[in-house]
Write a structure and sequence with these properties.
Chain lengths: 304, 285
Amino acid sequence: MAMTRISPQSTPRLSMRMRRAIWVWAFLALPVIFYSVIRFYPTIDAFRLSLTDWNLMSAPQYIGLQNYRDMFASAEFWKVFRNTFAYLIIGTPISLFLSFTIAYFLDRIRFGHTFLRALYFLPFITTASAMGWVWRWFYQPAPTGVINSVLGAVGMGQLDFLRSTTWALPSIMVTAIWAGLGFQIIIFMAGLRSIPQTYYEAAKIDGVGDFAILRKITLPLLKPTTIFLVVFSSIGFLRIFDQVYNMTTNDPGGPLGSTKPLVLMIYQTAFNSYQMGAAAAQTVVLFTILLIISLLQLWILRTR
Amino acid sequence: MAVTDTAIPTPLPFARIKPGRIVLWTILFIGGMLMITPILFMFSTSLKTAGQIYDLRLIPQNPTLANYVEVLTEGQFLRWFLNSAFVAICVTASNVFFDSLVGYTLAKFRFRGRMFVFIAILSTLMIPTEMLVIPWYLMSANFGWLDSYWGIMFPGMMTAFGTFLMKQFFETVPDDFIEAARMDGLNEFTIWWKIAMPLVTPALSALAIFTFLGNWTAFFWPLISTTSKELYTLPVGLTSFAVEQAIQWEMIMTGAAIATITTLLVFLALQRYIVRGVMLAGLRG
């Protein structure tokens, strides 16, 4: 090492390295500023704010962990917490089961494959706020609402959907599942395609049945894809907002808070009540949950 | 023959199509139609008059564009449409430029602090937007960015996801190309822009499509950072419009149709790229 440093050729080489380093940091200058100011500083700021009491009017006051204590002692927070996990725990398995089933069969179709795939994928690229209103209209009582009109036409009872504290959350969840299904189907199909055909051919020669192939070959080899989608879908449900907000504008998160997820609570605390400190504490809770889920994913993929 | 059957999607003679396949196809087709039913009903109702909306026929009896004329002339949809387009295009251009510049630098240069920069950028993927909106809001209020285009755009000008995606792709570009260009005396910026960038166009188009669609449909931050109607983006404008319309569903559906139609057209035009892009991004990310 020391040899090269004093050898005569090193001077132009070093200056070339220097020149290249200047280019590197010229390329990275704006991005480094951006990530520092728009990502890292706000992250620290959120933690700091969560320790203050601040209504934007007077100066923020340091109150330690009081926001967290208040939050964990409030019944509303736990209700919202339950709602958020209801979206996740019911929504994720249902959407994964549906998307896998559709991807599995769609993968075998050649005729009109692109067309069928487009039908399933289309909802994914729609605007959530717009489609929230379409579904809201679907869920109206008859004769306005499409679903209740159809139920009425075939002689079945009416459902209250968005007006019922029991059914409003599942109704909104259906909208969210519908919107995300196309993405999951595409990812599952990409996963299915990446399984080498030779495995299937070998299994067929051995006379293994379709269901056994699915259980013994397809599902195990699809595990990384499935884990990715479980995490992706869970994070999506934990952050659900657009659909809930648009489908319950007359009483956001209602009826009686039965559909309110964490992000809507954060929004209301910060931008309706202007309790910035309390809202920041709620975002820290969301961050923690998301972090745990991401770490769980890494841990599962490690031990595989 | 048996091999062709499973491996290569050659068109089969009709005699060999099994009835099971037809049943499967029909079920998948019905499922697919159910998936787009909300979209079809939205367009159908937007072509109906107020008196016709209880008529659930999918093809309206006397389709009329009157709702569109009314919504576009009375509402501010045109303005919101242009706002959305401006914001989405600016943010997309910025991401295509900076994400690939940073991705290229991290993939093709060896320098002190490289791993640190890479991990620092990657770690921002762990931070949910929701946690940043309050500090962003306060920052915007301090700098007077609330209710401005820049205020809507600044949080998304660069993304860790895009940087990571581009880094992955630049790693597949052979170093020889870059070395050869250096021998020719091109400067580093020109090498990136003229030599490396054209080699990763599939990734660039995927990044551009995603960033555009993501920003076109974005709701949470534009809702927070704008208060005057002139600066609403399409999704936020639609919400305020729909709230005002209360129960005039044909009007709300027209607004929703206007908000949705751009992404649908983008999709129909670029379906192949979008699906491939989703696969690329999903499997690498």
